[in-house]
Design a protein that fits this description.
Elements: E1 12-13, E2 22-24, E3 27-34, E4 39-40, E5 52-53, E6 68-72, E7 75-81, E8 83-84, E9 86-87, E10 91-94, E11 104-108, E12 124-131, E13 136-144, E14 173-179, E15 182-187, E16 192-196, E17 202-207, E18 209-210, E19 213-214, E20 241-246, E21 253-257, E22 272-279, E23 284-293, E24 300-306, E25 311-317, E26 346-356, E27 362-369, E28 373-374, E29 390-391, E30 398-403, E31 408-413, E32 431-437, H1 439-443
Parallel strand pairs: 1-26, 2-27
Antiparallel strand pairs: 3-32, 4-9, 5-8, 6-7, 10-11, 11-12, 12-13, 14-15, 15-16, 16-17, 18-19, 20-21, 21-22, 22-23, 24-25, 25-26, 26-27, 28-29, 30-31, 31-32
């Protein structure tokens, strides 16, 4: 796909980048964990349907709590559903700006992975604070999204209720920013941007415009099956706004697709991801477009956050899970004690948005490899170290990154409860937060 170049004045168009991308070292500076089975009660005025969640994750409705074990591929996870309450589960985005008390705004995604199985999954975001001295994560507040004023332009699951709490059948929130006292969320079903106040009340929903036309996907409200990929819709399923960065200088939101758009033949258009800018003050798309080019082996991105006016961090990943040291042998039929598709590409890439190639792709300055983290001080939590002095982060979906200071970044995973493992075969992945010392990457230009 070729992106129309209509960039900011500081942008410099360059030929395709020929230099080899640098790999920077990463050293573990802290490790904390929120247990997989962390639950929260829905608000008192929520419909009874939200008090037991994950009732629709099997082929038939299941109202018996804790009766079916979740699986990660062929591996059991030791977690049983439906759940009593709402799982705090997978962290799907970090806001660049923190709350006044220093806690991080953290987003949970749509629930159980699909629109059809998440109508009883409430949507919410949190204020969290990892405690790296004790290896724990404090959840200071959970804020539930609701639409009492009818700002959502389509029928929601809880349409007939007064509270109108949103669910994973309405939106798939994947990225978050805190802007001028309000929350902005990028979601995948539309894909849309959602504006909310700090109580979770929806203030507006903004569809995606590309060259003046609304950009849609197979789960967009109004998409009628059968629909032809590439013509009736161009956004891949689970391919909307996985990353949405806030530029600290301009105040613009930079919304990045998780996967490439579809061409007229229904196939992905290359390996570049569309990035568009949105002005939260006017509520309009600016028309500026950029691209992020995935490296070989990467299938999607996980998060996107600026570290200054022009440089930003992007998580890119493959669809693998588990340490490659425990990979299944080629042709193995028994995969109960090994990973058939281990993690191979889990990078955090530093990009320069002010310089682009002839196709509009942001320059990749370099990256760190989350499968090769140095741990000379033995800070990894018990049972997580791949080997002495090393930590890997081999989760299928790593969806949180933000700059902490001039030398450190914070990274966390989405554990897709109860459908992901990665750390240990037969055990659901926890929500892990790692503090990484990466001075070489953060100072690189």
């Amino acid at each position: 796909m070729r992106y129309t170049v209509a960039f900011l004045a500081c942008t410099v168009a360059l030929p395709a980048f020929a230099q080899e991308e640098q790999t920077f070292p990463a050293t573990l500076a802290g490790h904390a964990r929120l247990p997989a089975m962390t639950m929260v009660a829905p608000p008192a005025d929520a419909p009874r349907d939200l008090w037991v969640s994950a009732k629709f994750t099997t082929n038939t409705r299941n109202d018996t709590p804790m009766s079916v074990e979740g699986k990660s591929g062929e591996h059991p996870t030791g977690v049983f559903l439906p759940f009593m309450g709402q799982p705090v589960q997978g962290m799907s985005g970090l806001a660049m700006n923190r709350a006044e008390d220093g806690s991080w705004f953290v987003l949970t995604d749509n629930g159980f992975g699909r629109k059809v199985n998440s109508p009883d999954a409430a949507l919410f975001f949190h204020r969290m604070m990892p405690d790296f001295e004790n290896g724990t994560v404090e959840r200071r507040e959970t804020i539930f999204l609701h639409d009492p004023d009818g700002k959502v332009p389509f029928r929601i699951t809880n349409e007939a209720t007064d509270s109108r709490y949103l669910t994973g059948a309405d939106f798939d929130p994947e990225s978050i920013q805190y802007v001028d006292g309000e929350i902005w969320i990028g979601e995948e079903f539309g894909p849309n941007l959602i504006r909310a106040d700090l109580t979770g009340k929806v203030l507006g929903v903004y569809p995606t415009l590309l060259e003046g036309a609304v950009l849609t996907g197979p789960d967009t409200a109004g998409t009628i099956v059968p629909a032809a990929a590439g013509t009736d819709y161009r956004v891949q399923r689970s391919g909307g706004y996985e990353g949405m960065a806030l530029n600290p200088e301009t105040g613009l939101l930079w919304a990045m697709m998780e996967k490439p758009l579809l061409g007229e033949n229904g196939e992905p258009e290359g390996d570049s991801l569309l990035v568009q800018t949105f002005d939260p003050k006017t509520g309009e798309w600016t028309g500026d477009r950029y691209g992020f080019k995935l490296s070989e082996g990467a299938a999607a991105i996980g998060d996107f956050n600026f570290i200054d006016a022009t440089r930003a961090l992007v998580i890119e990943r493959d669809n693998g899970e588990g340490d490659a040291a425990n990979a299944c042998a080629e042709g193995a039929t028994d995969v109960s004690a090994c990973y058939p598709s281990p993690a191979l590409v889990k990078n955090i890439v530093l990009v320069d948005t002010a310089s682009t190639d002839e196709e509009g792709n942001m320059r990749r300055i370099g990256h760190i490899n989350l499968l090769d983290i140095n741990d000379p001080d033995g800070l990894a939590l018990p049972g997580t170290a791949a080997e002495e002095g090393k930590l890997t982060f081999p989760f299928v979906t790593i969806e949180d990154v933000a700059r902490v200071d001039e030398t450190h970044i914070l990274v966390a995973n989405d554990n897709n409860l109860p459908f992901s493992g990665g750390r240990e075969i037969g055990k659901a992945a926890d929500n892990e937060f790692i503090l990484l010392s990466v001075p070489e990457m953060l100072s690189a230009e």
